């Protein structure tokens, strides 16, 4: 017999946890066969490579787009982690994986990214750096 005790959300999936036990003729548990508890595993690590050169304008559109995309991710411990690397002439990690623990924190951080600017757009360099 298996008996779920509660449900646990893992992103868009829901897992029921509890135990499975062997029962005797009087329906008394005589031993656990297998626990059904499951752990949410990390779905993915995402590093966004963001062009912050002078060729990108207006910057608030980039911030809005980034905030909109990031708000859709299930960000949290054991789930999705997000980092952002901005580039132009230089490649700079705005934040590294795991720095922010919720989607709301990531969205707020995205709204506060200032454009790097610069005369060059070094895309391949930034991708290698990420």
From TrEMBL:
Gene3D superfamilies: von Willebrand factor, type A domain. Residues 45-130 form the VWFA domain. InterPro entries: ECM_Assembly_Org (IPR050525), VWF_A (IPR002035), vWFA_dom_sf (IPR036465). It comes from the Eukaryota. This is ITA10 protein. The gene is Itga10.
